[in-house]
Amino acid sequence: MAIEQEMSLNNYLNIIKRRMPYVIGFFFLVFLAAIAIALKLPPVYQSKSTILIESQQVQSGQAKESYATDRFEALKQIVLSKENLFKIAEKYKLYGLDKKPNLPREGIINTTRSKISVDLLKAEAEQWGEKPTFAFQVTFNHY
User: Fold this and answer.
1) 80-114 tens-digit pLDDT
2) Which H, E and C letters describe the chain, residue by residue?
3) Rounded Cα–Cα distance for residues 8 and 15 (Å)
4) Rounded distance, CA 110 to CA 94, Å?
5) Domain spans of the chain, in order of start
6) What is the pLDDT of residues 20-53, one digit of tens each?
């Protein structure tokens, strides 16, 4: 019959000391794998902004929806205008504008426009009071 022996703190420390090379080796391998994966993955940048617009005029039911859609389309055209997109690319030195300032303007505008999405979010005017309110989300993804 086996004699049961009570484990003491000293016994646990001895077990840890014996297994320490395995533990360190395992963590070192996991660390190297994490670094390799981080270096292999492409850099990704995503920025999101939600904009809430509130009108001062009070409208009813269908007029609220129509107003929100029309206002959204007008704001979308302003945000995605050629001048604004080029100003954004120039300000933040996107697409190598700091290294090559003579890149074709149309190419920069088209690339910037393809990476920006503007989505109308569902807005319920009752939640924010009597004023017709809507929100939209502007997202920029750069891979």
Assistant:
1) 888 888 888 888 777 777 777 777 888 888 888 88
2) CCCCCCCCHHHHHHHHHHHHHHHHHHHHHHHHHHHHHHHHCCCCEEEEEEEEEECCCCCCHHHHHHHHHHHHHHHHHHHCCHHHHHHHHHHCCHHHCCCCCCCCHHHHHHHHHHHEEEEEECCCHHHHCCCCEEEEEEEEEEC
3) 11
4) 13
5) 6-41, 45-142
6) 999 899 999 999 999 999 999 988 888 898 888 7
Q: Average per-residue pLDDT in the chain?
A: 80
Give the integer Cα–Cα distance in Å for 78 and 75.
5
Task: Quote the percentage of the chain above a pLDDT of 90.
Answer: 20
**Residue with the two structure tokens 């395992």:** 26
